[in-house]
């Protein structure tokens, strides 16, 4: 089995952990294939790659069976962008903190590696969003979590004129606007008061960021919708974000957000599912009075 590996390598001390995991991959009969940027950053820390490790530039040419992201959710989102339209199942090993997407704990790595090599896992397809009208992203125009429009620095709030499938929806006077997938409903959108969607919902969530009008609330729309956005910014500059990638805009084209034609496959190991992740990460069912869980 050929397992691709990517990660941000933050903090640099994570290089030793990643090197150890690669060696354990080899021990169970897998071939680690490391993204060249990660390989370069590991070399800069003085941590050589283990024997029998390969380096890849493009996932399409690496003949991968699986892709493993090392780090937190930010690293996982980078990995989704890296694999692009290559239909490679992805697993996240959590070297960070919260880890909704990178939900395999470092303590469980050995059992996870055995399960992958023995193919004891399922895959779950997650929808992506695509953004058109913003040339700064070039071919990297998809997002697993959200597309965000945001005011820049300490600038005044922006106005976002939104049309849904060609019909006027609303003008949002706010610090920004989030359009999230079901996967992204537990990320930035949730922190701004948006609802949690099950990952298999065919929907998008439109969530304003600090809206001027308090009666404006998050809205769930069908996943097949096309959202067209026009931004008015007093400073004439604003940010457009796809997950963790940002572009500064100094003009106001029409931006079109819709569901991407391809999906990403997430590896689900035994004992992993969305409900377990919610309970564990949000402490649902935890009685804060006694510290005991109620199930």
3D architecture notes:
It is a single chain. By secondary structure, the protein is α+β, with helices and mostly antiparallel strands. It has 2 domains: 2-120 and 270-293, Rossmann fold (3-Layer(aba) Sandwich); 128-262, Tumour Suppressor Smad4. The chain has helices at 14-27, 36-44, 73-83, 109-117, 188-191, 274-282; strands at residues 2-7, 31-35, 54-56, 66-71, 90-94, 104-105, 121-132, 142-143, 146-151, 158-164, 167-174, 176-180, 203-209, 219-222, 226-232, 238-242, 245-249, 255-269, 286-287, 292-293. It starts with a strand and ends with a strand.
SSE diagram, text form:
Blueprint: E1 2-7, H1 14-27, E2 31-35, H2 36-44, E3 54-56, E4 66-71, H3 73-83, E5 90-94, E6 104-105, H4 109-117, E7 121-132, E8 142-143, E9 146-151, E10 158-164, E11 167-174, E12 176-180, H5 188-191, E13 203-209, E14 219-222, E15 226-232, E16 238-242, E17 245-249, E18 255-269, H6 274-282, E19 286-287, E20 292-293
Parallel strand pairs: 1-2, 1-4, 2-3, 4-5, 5-6
Antiparallel strand pairs: 7-8, 7-18, 9-12, 9-16, 10-11, 10-15, 12-13, 13-14, 15-18, 16-17, 19-20
Strand content: 35-45%
Number of domains: 2
- The total of beta strands comes to 20
Given helix and strand content, the structural type is alpha+beta
Low-confidence stretches: none
Order of helical and strand elements: EHEHEEHEEHEEEEEEHEEEEEEHEE
How many alpha or pi helices? 6
Major β-sheet, in short?
A: 6 strands, parallel
CATH class of the largest domain: Alpha Beta
Helix content: 10-25%
In short:
The chain is α+β, with helices and mostly antiparallel strands. It is built from 6 helices and 20 strands.
């Amino acid at each position: 089995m050929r397992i691709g590996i990517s990660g941000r390598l933050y903090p640099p001390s994570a290089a030793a952990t990643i090197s150890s995991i690669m060696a354990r991959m080899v021990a169970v009969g897998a071939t680690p294939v490391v993204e060249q940027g990660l390989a370069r950053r590991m070399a800069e820390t003085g941590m050589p790659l283990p024997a029998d490790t390969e380096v890849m530039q493009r996932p399409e040419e690496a003949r991968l069976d699986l892709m493993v992201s090392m780090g937190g959710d930010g690293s996982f989102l980078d990995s989704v962008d890296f694999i692009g339209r290559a239909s490679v199942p992805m697993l996240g090993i959590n070297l960070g903190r919260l880890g909704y997407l990178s939900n395999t704990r470092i303590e469980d790595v050995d059992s996870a590696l055995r399960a992958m090599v023995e193919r004891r896992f399922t895959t779950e397809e997650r929808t992506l969003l695509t953004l058109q009208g913003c040339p700064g992203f070039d071919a990297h125009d998809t997002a697993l979590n959200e597309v965000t429009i945001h005011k820049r620095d300490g600038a005044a709030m922006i106005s976002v004129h939104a049309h849904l499938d060609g019909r006027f929806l609303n003008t949002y006077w706010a610090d920004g606007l989030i359009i999230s997938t079901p996967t992204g409903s537990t990320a930035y959108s949730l922190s701004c008061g948006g609802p949690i969607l099950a990952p298999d919902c065919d929907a998008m969530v439109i969530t304003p960021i600090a809206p001027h009008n308090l009666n404006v609330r998050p809205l769930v729309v069908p996943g097949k919708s096309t959202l067209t956005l026009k931004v008015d910014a007093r400073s004439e500059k604003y940010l457009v974000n796809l997950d963790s990638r940002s572009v500064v805009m100094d003009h106001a084209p029409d931006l079109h957000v819709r569901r991407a034609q391809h999906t990403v496959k997430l590896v689900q190991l035994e004992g992993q599912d969305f409900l377990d992740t919610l309970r564990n990460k949000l402490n649902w069912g935890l009685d804060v009075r006694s510290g005991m869980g109620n199930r």
